[in-house]
Fold this protein.
Amino acid sequence: MPSYRYSAIDHTGRSFSGTLEADNLEAVRKKLAELRYHIVNINEVASSTGLNDLLKTFSRVKQKELVVFSRQFATMIDAGLSVLKCLDILSKQTKDPVLRDALTTVRVDVNGGASLTEALAKHPRVFARLYVNMVRSAEAGGILDQVLDRLATFLEKEQEMRQKVISAMMYPVVVFIFATIVMGVMMFWVLPQFAKIFDDMGIKTLPLSTKLMLDFSIMARDYWYLVAGVIVAAIFAVVLYGRTETGAMHLDQIKLRVPIFGDITLKVAISRFARTFGTLISSGVPVLRAMEITSDTTGNLAISQVIERARNSVKEGEKISDPMKSSEYFPIMVTQMIAVGEETGRLDQMLVKVSEFYEAEVDAMLKGMASLIEPIMIVGLGVMVGFIAISVVTPIYTMVSSVK
């Protein structure tokens, strides 16, 4: 379906522009007329495979923009504004071009008789399934302002958790890249020069550490394409394996078993599961539907598989907590709190408590890991540099001693 770029003036005299998808130019004029816009200009956006089009195709709305949109939408609805009026205001003031175009189209669809849920569902790259389903339950229950506020809080918590993990990993990643560059310079330029110096000095017998280091340097320099080819092939093989159902499951299971990082990954997944599931239930989404959505948002197939087993058990009339008790991934505390929540009818509140507990756990682990990784990386770099220095100096020192 072709896209059209338009400029228009609303009933208040305010000028704005946007993009609409329609079958033809007349359909665009009709949609804008339905919104009571005075059309200034309409141009068809030429289809192209240029860089800008590719970037637009793969671009996503920043989570921060969705948080602001949801919070403002909730405030306006609570103040008594109509959905159409809210969408009109928000589509004009948002700075993100992808979100702005989506909201403009959503407003057109809602004005044409579609529900807000149906209009949002047409933009899966902007509004995820969780977002759409929560809005669906809000429309059915007449609590759109409350659910939008919960969505904003949920997205804020998700963004906060993601930022904490990224911040904790930033230092070791930077140090690792720096160490890799230093090793590359040593292997490809510095050590070959020392090999020439040893030959010129007539040193024939080298210590084992020096010989191994120089041999590895020569191999890396002369056969770098083979080394690079092996590394690229290994990465490519892992990526291809990860795209298969079995491979993706195995890799996600490995992520949960890696020392230290596996524990963090597990706790992040459990926290995300609890907060997503709790938010959906408290917003009126049916349990089975909520579990289906939650299993897609955990970020780990091993955890998702357990949730799917629990979902099947609920279909058969069993409790949610029963399959989780037999799983190696869900701790006893989590399953017990879910069981208590089921018995007392306060499952959403229990899930929020679980999420808050594991968010605090992850925060503490990340802080501890950051303080622990720094000295480990420094010691590691010191050992590496010291090994190279000793391997280079030892032959020279041995020759000078023999001359004396």
